[in-house]
Amino acid sequence: MKLNLKRMFARSMIEGPDLVGPQRPPSPRSAKRKMMFVTLAGILAVVGTLAGAYYFAMRPVTLRIAVGPGNSDDLRLVQKLTQAFTHNPVRLRPVQTDGAAASAQALADGKADLAIIRGDLDVPKNAQAVATLRKNLAVLWVPPAARGKGKKAVAKITKIPQLAGHRIGVVGRTQANVNLLKVVLQQYGVDPEKVEIVQFPAPEAAEAIRNQRADAYLAAGPVNSKITAEAISASTRDGGTPTFLAIDSAEAIAQNHPTYEASEIPAGAFGGAPAKPDDEVKTISFSHHIVARKGLAESTVAAFTRQLFAVRQSVIAEFPLAKIETPDTDKDAAIPVHPGAAAFVDGEEKTFLDRYSDYIWWGLMALSAMGSAGAWFAGYLKKDDRSDNSSLRERLLEMLAAARHSDSIEELDRMQAEADVILGDTLHGFENGAIEEGALTAFNIALEQFHNAVADRKALLISMPQNLQRAGAQFRATGTL
What topology does CATH give the domain 135-288? Predict the structure, then answer.
């Protein structure tokens, strides 16, 4: 049974004298309310931490991608991807360079996060493969001999060793194509110093071939390269067709130079009538790669790879030269794959909870431990309050016994005043959580009994003659009649 302490406190104020001693200031919020606010604050802290971590992990990231040269298909493709990724978690900012070699250097110097590079160039040590952009074939051919009066007869070239002593035209200004030609010549025992190598810019290649600026030509590009097809078409004259030189040692070259692969030029790859070539031709190939800086976050690269393959079909439709294939995930790959790209390819890409579940778990454990420690510390601080309350309750019981035998109304009033102080201290302790509800019930019973005892004793003393009151007081004081 719960007793209304405030009602009893009011009755005590009416029946007895005013409280003695200084009035206590209003008590602070109750312990339950404090605990509710502390718990709410802890929950909000956890939710805020999780929300902050989620925002930090999922916020848009802009990656710098090095690509070049200007007006190249690679640059236009990157610009297309930049537009496609505008509202995606990973976005792109193109960094234009002079070519694949410069892009690789930008990645090595930390000026770019991604880069489009040729696989047969020096790959930066901090580069890891994300995707294969396209595969390029090396095409080596000899135009048909010119006819007509005054034309000097030239021995027909049908094999690579016969190129010694001749002029070879290389389509494109990049040194990488010259290096490719030298690799092929050296494989067949032809000293590059014994040939004259002339480079033509890609837009000028067809005109240079028509003007017979060289005896043989080399071009490197995708099998459907418009530049290569136009250069071969310019080699057709007087009804004659070019002779394609097969690189029969392609596998040996690939073994000695892992950046190259043995490949074949499909029959009729460059069209025309008759088809050019009229049969498959062995050659070597190399790839253009999208590579990422090694230190780039796995989750970021995985998200970029996912976005890249999500728009793959639309990109290929607009840029047929691009194939966009998954990278080689073998451990012995020429360019090691980035863990983020490998996770996407293998279907092991981690979600937000996968990446941060351990942190969330340990955070909740730490919060629980802190709560337990706080509860223990709060209980420890209230130990003295509980001890004081027990003393006050014992004092109330002593006054209850004394009130039953008191012969002085003044003494009863003093005890009543002291009981009022005890009541105030008890209410203060209850509101601060130092006194539990069970202990409060026991105090209620003792206080009720005390009030009844005081009221009964006062009524008895008031009804007794004054001389009997004085005699009784003297007897109790001296212990004699």
Answer: D-Maltodextrin-Binding Protein; domain 2 (3.40.190)
Mean pLDDT of 25-43: 58
Higher pLDDT, residue 198 or 431? 198
256-303 tens-digit pLDDT: 998 999 999 999 888 765 668 889 999 999 999 999 999 999 989 999
Domain layout of the chain by residue ranges: 5-21+380-478, 58-133+289-347, 135-288
Enter the pTM of the model: 0.64
Q: For residues 404 and 175, give the distance between their C-alpha atoms in angstroms, rounded to a whole number.
A: 116
127-141 pLDDT, tens digit per residue, is 999 999 999 999 999
- Report the C-alpha gap between 77 and 86 in whole angstroms: 15
Are 62 and 93 within 8 A, CB to CB? yes
Question: 281-293 and 196-200 as β-strands: parallel, antiparallel, unpaired?
Answer: unpaired
